[in-house]
Amino acid sequence: MAQLQLGEALKQFLDKSKLKNGVRAAQIEGIWAEVMGKTIAKHTDKIEIINQTLFITTAVGPLKQELVYQKEKIIERINEVMGEKVIKQVVIR
User: How does pLDDT run along the chain (93 residues), one tens digit per residue?
Assistant: First the structure.
């Protein structure tokens, strides 16, 4: 039987599990302020991932518009920080 490092075993488990999107969303929430800045993070209400689509919820109209313009940059930054292609699309609500 091959031995795996704990981190690698957890990664393999999550890749096959339905928990993967929830864990990734939590990871993104953890780095959101670093990636997008404290002001944007403060006014972001919810972050979800469904099928490699990042859903960002905010009640602030001007912020919604700004995030719409930055979709490509958001995808690029998050994928870079996560070290893999986690996000393909961004939807602002």
Answer: 567 688 787 777 767 766 777 778 888 888 898 889 999 999 999 988 888 999 999 999 999 999 999 999 999 999 998 888 989 999 999
Burial-class residue 13 by CB neighbours within 10 Å (0-12, 13-18, 19+): exposed
- Structural domain containing residue 48: 6-92
Q: Is the pTM of this model over 0.90?
A: no
Tell me whether strands 89-92 and 53-57 are parallel, antiparallel or unpaired.
parallel
d(CA 26, CA 48): 8
Specify the amino acid at residue 63: L
Tell me if 92 sits within 8 A of 67, measured CB to CB.
Answer: yes
- Structural domain count, the chain: 1
